[in-house]
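residues and backbone:
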Amino acid sequence: GPGATTLPMLVFSSVRMGVNPEINALATLILGAVGIVGFIAWYLMARAEKQRIRDIQRARRG
């Protein structure tokens, strides 16, 4: 609604007044979640690529 404060507004306004520990905790959680999702995506892509290479090698052997 019109009276709601968005996360970016909260973060930028807290820079002027000093960072609130809750914002630090939230940022840590967000970064951690993004890191975990990124790692899972990388792992799944690497596994799929290895499987694709194995499939190609099997197809060449006959």
Remarks:
- The helical segments are 7-17, 21-61.
